[in-house]
Design goal:
Chain lengths: ~160, ~650
């Protein structure tokens, strides 16, 4: 009973919700799906309930085929899209800054070998405005534009993803 | 006649529909069962671990797994032997079982491999099935090693106040720079309500189900590091390839079940421990946490196993990165930064005169500010997006790589901190009457406790009980019982404008001529602000405006409610010596008209990681008394 009392006291004033219960839509846009509308303190709380369960359905272990997921891991041919859609802001930032772990991870997913990474970083910084033409650029559009820039690059054209 | 033929047909269909290999080989199954019985395998610790059995009060067994499809025998939840024997029988079949809909050998692959080894399965008489789904999953995880991940505590959400733990599966082909592509093993509750009170009640009493998932690390980093600004500690564990395989095989099995989630006991941190025990059965970790599990304690428990932690790394949150990058700026550069931050138009004059790498740094911080804001405040998202775009365009035009910045942890790693439960033995004196005090606090940290490994300025105390024996009066009394007492002091900052706040519910006593120690229920909440200074070592000056409500039979009428406030100073006098000085004034216009004034000077010296000495001097003027009542107390505190 005491547990209940103090729990009620501590938690009563704090609204919680979950807008991410059934996030198994088509494709692999779980990045935008899970975090959409993330502004303000309320969604903050929503996104972090109970050590919380964002995407635990999507990523549930041995749950079979579910959209772009197979038993809780992203299907191989969707890894790039999944990663890009979930990390658009960080990719945009790191391309402009010429470095960062998201950018390195993107290069790794594209198969750009270590010896060509610095060219990749230089390219994405120089062509930043072409790769992210507007503030509303989607991850799909970004990847297409990135492909185009890479195709035109002598050292990077080999690593263009199949879009 | 018709009836008999129908039954016959049904029987035939049933047998025909499940082509039991066991039917061809009933002798071998019986042989295996006999050997298993001889060896007592169903009582073997490993079998009990795999099915998550624990002994009940009456001496039997019950499994923590709450999904019936996790058990192959109808009475599997409570009967280890029946479960083992049915499992053996199902291994002869390719019937799809469990929620994962696979043959038993694949759905429960850790059980299969353990029993195969323990009983030496003859592959001719019990053929091994190829588990394609498991193989694909295992290949995708591509495990090289396992890390324990600890996102530190997050005060502004009750469910994250104690931190969180998960495992990361470090992939063979990843470097430190691409570790965000790794998968994690995460246990979390599936929250099914948006009501705050229900959330709390169900979270504590087991109203939610929890399940295991493999969320990519980049999503975890995005959430903890970017959105909640929680620093992350990563501990790479020294597990052999065999141990990792066992852990992952068992994780695969856990996809077949859910567990009942309990916020204080069987939470995220608790549920990771059996996975480690399955990996290395000589570890005994979970037993210690059956009744109370605080994530930092499980980290301490894992870190204390000799040789288990191979390497520790620190991943600063975006908030920490901003603070430390900003500390690199000159006063002039700070002015430029705030101009960039405020201005919607382009570069201020001063900016152009700076070297290009300083320009880059300023634009990087300015961008970080916008990211921090989108995660923290109600903002005009379109406006912020426009601004971000301008900043990044300008930044990309500089054509230089941002120089790497080395970040230092803002606090020591959690395993170096004191344990979270505390017991104190004190000698005191109140108005000429000496007393002894026994104080017991199950969790977790108060403002004066050593904050090594904890969030500085954050207090979470649960069920803190102080019992006193007054020598002259010769009586034992419950001096106070704080159900919950939470304070968050956040220093003011141009960017990080979070308010400080407190909330508490407790039983208190106050001396009065109406009764010996008049007991009443106290509910208090407040909000305010804090300033950080470095005149001594590091000090916080704070104030809180408070609402206070009391209920007790001796009040006339039996309650009072009012407002007031606290001003305080919390200062590090030396590395392990802290001082807390505060004064609270409350006036009660509702119920019994009265006012209280409390002053307190407290000091703590840390003697050992789990031992400290505390001195407390209190002056209280309560319930309209004109004179002060003074008391002093020295307490030796042990953390366990």
């Amino acid at each position: 009973m005491k547990k209940l009392i103090y729990a009620a006291v501590v938690f009563a004033l704090i609204p919680v919700s979950h807008s991410f219960a059934s996030d198994t839509g088509p494709g692999c846009g779980f990045g935008t799906m899970i975090f959409k509308g993330q502004k303000g303190i309320v969604p903050q709380v929503l996104a972090s309930t109970t050590n919380a369960s964002f995407g635990s359905q999507t990523f549930g272990i041995s749950t079979g085929t579910l959209g772009c997921m197979q038993d809780g891991v992203v299907k191989n041919d969707q890894k790039l899209d999944a990663f890009a859609s979930a990390n658009m802001e960080n990719l945009s930032q790191e391309m402009a800054q010429g470095r960062g772990e998201h950018l390195t991870s993107l290069a790794s997913l594209l198969g750009v070998p270590a010896e060509h990474r610095s060219e990749f970083y230089t390219l994405t910084q120089e062509k930043y405005t072409a790769i992210f033409p507007t503030a509303q650029t989607t991850s799909g559009e970004m990847l297409v534009a990135l492909n185009q820039e890479m195709s035109a690059h002598p050292a990077l054209s080999d690593f263009v993803s199949s879009h | 006649m018709l009836r008999w033929s129908t039954i016959f047909l049904l029987l035939w269909l049933l047998l025909g529909a499940t082509p039991l290999l066991a039917a061809e080989n009933p002798d071998y199954l019986q042989e295996l069962i006999n050997v298993a019985r001889q060896k007592g395998l169903s009582q073997n610790r490993y079998w009990l671990l795999l099915i998550h059995y624990h002994t009940t009060f009456f001496g039997g067994f019950t499994s923590d797994a709450s999904d019936n499809s996790f058990f192959l025998a109808p009475d599997g939840k409570t009967n280890p032997e029946s479960e083992l024997e049915t499992t053996l029988a199902k291994f002869f079949s390719d019937e799809l079982v469990g929620t994962s809909k696979q043959p038993a050998q694949c759905a429960f692959i850790a059980r299969y491999h353990w029993l195969k080894e323990a009983l030496g399965f003859d592959p001719k008489r019990l053929p091994e099935q190829t588990c394609e789904r498991f193989k694909a999953w295992y290949a995708a995880l591509n495990a090289k090693s396992i890390s324990l991940i600890f996102p530190s505590a997050y005060m502004n959400n009750p469910s994250s106040m104690f931190g969180h733990t998960l495992f990361r599966i470090n992939q063979k082909d990843q470097t430190e720079q691409t570790e965000i592509l790794d998968y994690t093993i995460n246990y979390a509750a599936t929250v099914t309500t948006d009501n705050g009170v229900l959330f709390a009640v169900w979270g504590i009493t087991g109203g939610f189900k929890g399940n295991f998932s493999t969320v990519p690390y980049y999503l975890q980093v995005r959430r903890y590091s970017d959105m909640e600004s929680r620093d992350i500690w990563e501990y790479r564990l020294n597990l052999s390839e065999e141990e990792i395989t066992r852990m992952l095989m068992h994780a695969w099995e856990l996809g077949n079940t859910t567990f009942t989630y309990y916020f204080f006991t069987q939470n995220c941190s608790y549920q990771l421990l059996p996975l480690l025990e399955v990996a290395r059965p000589t570890l005994h970790l979970a037993d210690a946490f059956r009744y109370w599990t605080i994530p930092a304690d499980t980290v301490r428990s894992i870190a204390s196993v000799s040789g288990l932690v191979e390497e520790m790394t620190y991943r600063p949150s975006r908030g920490t990165q901003i603070r430390q990058k900003r500390a690199l700026l000159s006063p002039e550069e700070r002015r430029v930064l705030s101009e960039i931050d405020r201005g919607t138009t382009m570069t201020p004059e001063l900016f152009d005169g700076l070297p290009v790498d300083r320009q880059a740094l300023l634009l990087d911080i300015a961008y970080d500010y916008t990211r921090y804001r989108t995660a923290k405040e109600e903002v005009d998202l379109d406006e912020i997006k426009r601004k971000q775009r301008l900043l990044l365009q300008q930044r990309s035009a500089l054509r230089v790589q941002s120089p790497p910045v080395t970040f230092t942890p803002v606090t020591a790693p959690p395993e170096t901190g004191h344990d979270t439960a505390r017991v104190g033995l004190g000698l005191g004196w109140r108005e000429g009457d000496p007393f002894e005090e026994l104080a017991i606090r199950p969790a977790y940290q108060d403002l004066l406790d050593d904050d090594i490994g904890y969030t500085s300025g954050a207090q979470i105390e649960l069920m803190n009980a102080r019992i006193r024996y007054y020598n002259q009066q010769e009586r034992v009394t419950l001096h106070s019982l704080a159900f919950a007492d939470i304070i968050s002091l956040v220093p003011l900052d141009p960017l990080f404008k979070k308010p400080s706040w407190k909330i508490s519910a407790s039983l208190e006593t106050l001396p009065s001529n109406r009764c010996h120690d008049c007991r009443y229920f106290d509910l208090n909440m407040g909000t305010g602000s804090a300033l950080e200074g470095h005149l001594l070592r590091r000090e916080l000056i704070y104030f809180l405006i408070e609402l206070d409500g009391n209920y007790g039979g001796f009040f006339d009428p039996d309650y009072r409610a009012g407002v007031g406030g606290t001003v305080g100073l919390l200062a590090d006098l030396a590395a392990r010596w802290k001082l807390h000085l505060f004064s609270t004034y409350l006036t009660y216009p509702l119920g019994e008209h009265s006012h209280d004034l409390k002053m307190s000077l407290q000091q703590r010296v840390t003697l050992l990681q789990d031992l400290s000495l505390r001195l407390e001097l209190n002056r209280r003027q309560e319930l309209n008394r004109r004179d002060f009542q003074n008391e002093g107390l020295v307490t030796l505190q042990v953390y366990f």
